[in-house]
Amino acid sequence: MYEGGRGTYEDNEIVGCNLANVCVQEGSTPVFRRNVIRDSVHSGILVLNTGFGLFEENVITGNGHSGVAIEAFGCPTLRANRITLNANYGVRVFQDGAGVVEDNDLTGNRQGAWHFEHHDTHSVTRARNRE
Length: 131
Description:
This protein is mainly beta. It contains no helices and 15 strands. The radius of gyration is 13 Å and the shape is globular.
C-alpha cells in the first residue's frame, strides 16, 4: 500500500509472501482487523516512509524476520494483536520509526518482544503489552 492508500481489511488470511506480507508506506492509512498474517519470508507487517495504519486483533505469526517492522518514519497503531512465534522480534523499530503499541501479546518470538535501534525507544508509546 503506497501513495496515500486506504481501505479496511478484515477477516483475511495473508500468507507466505517473499517480502513482507503487508507493506504500508507514503502516507497510507489502512485498517487491518482480525486477519491472520503469517509465514512471510520477511516481516509480517512493514510500515515505513511515513506510512501509518491501524492494526487491531490480528494474528501475526511464523514470519521469517520480525512480526512487525517499523522504520523510516513509519508510525502505525498496533492494538490487541497476537504477535508471536516470529523468527526474530515481535516488534522491531529502527531508522526513526514511531507508533503506538498497546494491549498486544508479544510472547514467544525467538529473539524477544522488542528491538529498538538507538534512540527509537522514545518514539513508540507502549502500554499493557504482554511480553
